[in-house]
Structure to design on (266 residues):
């Protein structure tokens, strides 16, 4: 217990909070070593601006930086021990729904078409709906990152039927998104399933999530609020929930037939 607040160990951690914590450690160790940011930057091959961004929790430290900084700052392994944790944060994108690189992505979506399946026009419309409003430069940066991201090798998604009717950006944008969803859904490595709105049995009462499988075989979960779940029990529970959702949703073939029909009518 802390003052007025109960701390529960749930296997969940916010990527942004972790970055800020590690950033504070870097700054404290640098201060203890009596080094300015330019000096530390020269020692590890990074610019002062990058060191500042790392200390402020605005960038994810790479393993090379953590290892080098640990040596330069004589941290005794404190920063080196964060390498695996930063791998988890990079996996979850520090708050984004889509990771940098994964072997497989499986998600349940309730409000929008998930990022890996979005067209550029739909992605732009969704970003413009964000509140507080995002600056245009931030929107453009995220769209550029979306365009540059490699395709996920294996992808499956359970999508609420209501998402297929919401015209973010207008009917033309929705029509293009539905057509793209139908086209992508024909690929062997992609399975899209629609959860009918009128369905009585529904295992998704606790909201959207994504199961991410990195290439090393581990599994982590990124919830819609950007919190990473790495505890094995919590991961197993969400895997079971996703299995139930897929069993309750329309089959991939019936789902694509519905998407195609809605695309013609949009």
């Amino acid at each position: 217990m802390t003052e007025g607040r109960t701390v529960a160990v749930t296997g969940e951690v916010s990527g942004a909070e972790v970055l800020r914590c590690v950033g504070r450690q870097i700054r404290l160790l640098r201060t203890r070593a009596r080094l300015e940011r330019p000096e530390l930057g020269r020692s590890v091959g990074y610019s002062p601006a990058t060191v500042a961004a790392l200390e402020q929790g605005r960038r994810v430290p790479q393993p090379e930086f953590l290892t080098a900084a640990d040596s330069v700052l004589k941290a005794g392994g404190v920063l080196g021990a964060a390498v695996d944790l930063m791998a988890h944060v990079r996996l979850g994108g520090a708050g984004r729904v889509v990771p940098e690189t994964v072997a497989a992505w499986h998600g349940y979506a309730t409000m929008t078409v998930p990022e890996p399946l979005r067209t550029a026009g739909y992605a732009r419309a969704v970003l413009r709906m964000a509140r507080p409003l995002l600056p245009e430069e931030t929107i453009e940066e995220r769209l550029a990152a979306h365009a540059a991201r490699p395709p996920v090798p294996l992808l499956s998604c359970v999508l609420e039927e209501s998402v297929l009717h919401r015209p973010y950006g207008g009917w033309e944008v929705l029509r293009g998104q539905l057509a793209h969803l139908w086209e992508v859904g024909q690929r062997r490595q992609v399975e899209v399933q629609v959860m009918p709105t009128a369905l009585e049995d529904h295992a998704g009462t606790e909201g959207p999530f994504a199961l991410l499988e990195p290439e090393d075989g581990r599994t982590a979960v990124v919830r819609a609020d950007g919190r990473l779940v790495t505890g094995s029990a919590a991961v197993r529970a969400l895997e079971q929930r996703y299995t139930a959702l897929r069993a309750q949703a329309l089959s991939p073939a019936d789902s694509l037939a519905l998407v195609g029909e809605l695309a013609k009518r949009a």
About this structure: The radius of gyration is 21 Å. DSSP finds ten helices and seven strands in the chain. Confidence is low (pLDDT under 50) at residues 1-11, 94-99. The first helix runs from residue 15 to 32.
